[in-house]
Amino acid sequence: MDRKDVLLRAAYDLLMRADERSIALPATSIETRYDDANCDGACLREDIALALGIDDDTAPIPLGPEY
Asked: What is d(CA 26, CA 64) in angstroms, rounded to the nearest whole number?
């Protein structure tokens, strides 16, 4: 499995855990597991940004006009 696959799976797991909660939590407070360690959403976001070659404070892509 390559690095992006590992990151995508960890992001998927984080989103699934977020949906399992009965209350809304910031993604940065939800943990996922990859690289044999627990990682919260902030750690995951930084690693994804690194893999994508973008700054870890890059704004999200804007949503379409219907939002």
From this structure: 23
**pLDDT confidence of residue 67:** 67
Tokens 């990682």 identify what position?
Answer: 39
Amino acid letter, 28: T
Domain boundaries, the chain: 3-52
- Dist. CA 22–CA 56, nearest whole Å: 29
Measured distance CA(54)–CA(33) in Å, rounded: 22
Cα separation, 19 vs 62, whole angstroms = 23
Taking alpha carbons only, the member of 37, 43, 41, 36 closest to residue 18 is: 41
Chain-centre distance for alpha carbon 51: 12
pTM: 0.73
